[in-house]
Design a protein that fits this description.
Chains A, B: Pfam families: Ham1p_like (PF01725). Chains A, B: Its cofactor is Mg(2+). Chains A, B: It comes from Salegentibacter chungangensis. The structure is a homodimer. The first copy, chain A, is an alpha/beta fold. Chain A has one domain: Maf protein. Helices cover 29% and strands 25% of the residues of chain A. In chain A, strands 1, 2, 3, 4, 5, 6 and 7 form a seven-stranded mixed sheet that branches. The model of chain A has no long low-confidence stretch (mean pLDDT 94). The interface between A and B is medium-sized, with 22 and 21 residues.
Chain lengths: 190, 190
């Protein structure tokens, strides 16, 4: 079967392709002639993943899946959440986002947060969501050079290091994204 | 491995037990000495499933999963949603809920709705959610005798009959609940 991963990111595609069973031919947006950015206008993480998958389904007619990720901080009533990538503005600068988060969290005792990745799988209008959750804490300063986004200030539960202090394989084992994709892959491999 | 299904409903347990691989020993709440009703006080369907699974994890220490289901109607801004079971009041009378829904929908042109089942799986504080979505329409009157809850007024997309006019195996193939549980079972069988 052909299955579209609603991303323009070649690295993301290659990473998932290697994990899928051989009967699935994974296509990128570019492979199906979709060169535009898909709008992400929903007000929840679930909603954005669903929106992107439905966009591909309705405009291009393919079975597909799409992902969205956000960081939900307890003391900030779930912010930045669906706005994680553009918390400090529409230029989506990860450094500015982290700076804003640390500022908002200044003096807060409750540092609890969770990362959430939602994958919406759309097979002939049948929809399943696969959600991976990673609980942790927001540190008081940045630590580590690996990863991206909020990784330098997110310390997963039961660990002393931030995501940015871990190598990719260790992070992937623990992470929201790893959990969501492993669930998707189990489902597609059945 | 031992795994608790956070339900007091013996039929639900038996149904899922038959589908799980043999290395999983499925336990009910009664099997672990939990006789109380677990509070469902979250304001989202996801939240209630997570809450129930965390309750079992924190009070009893078991790996577990919990489910929650709701009907989201477009013209009612997603209501009854997390309040589906008690839409017409705390006595959770399905007939009264359906009656209220039909009343609220009177004269509405947009009949689009979706059923959503969320299963929260909690394995040593690792959390995954498995969500099954079934799109459809709210009929203008009740049809059929099978199923339960809103089944007599929910007509799944691409079908002419309501869930209450289908037999259990046909409904299970299409339904939100079937989709969510098949995803969970794929994951646990890997």
């Amino acid at each position: 079967m052909e299955l579209v991963f609603a991303t323009h990111n070649k690295n993301k595609l290659i990473e998932i392709k290697a994990l899928l069973p051989s009967h699935i031919k994974l296509l990128s947006l570019d492979d199906i002639g979709c060169t535009e950015e898909i709008p992400e206008t929903a007000d929840t993480i679930d909603g954005n993943a669903i929106l992107k998958a439905e966009y591909v389904r309705h405009r291009y007619g393919y079975d597909c899946f799409a992902d969205d990720t956000g960081l939900e901080v307890e003391a900030l009533a779930g912010a930045p959440g669906v706005y994680s990538a553009r918390y400090a503005g529409d230029d989506k600068d990860p450094k500015e986002n982290v700076k804003k988060l640390l500022k908002q969290m200044k003096g807060k005792e409750n540092r609890n947060a969770r990362f959430k990745t939602v994958i919406a799988l759309n097979l002939k209008d049948n929809e399943n969501l696969f959600t991976g959750i990673c609980k942790g804490r927001i540190t008081t300063e940045e630590r580590g050079e690996n990863g991206f986004g909020y990784d330098p200030v997110f310390q997963p539960k039961g660990h002393q290091r931030t995501f940015a202090e871990m190598d990719l394989s260790e992070k992937s084992e623990l992470s929201h994204r790893g959990k969501a994709f492993r669930a998707l892959i189990s489902y597609l491999s059945k």
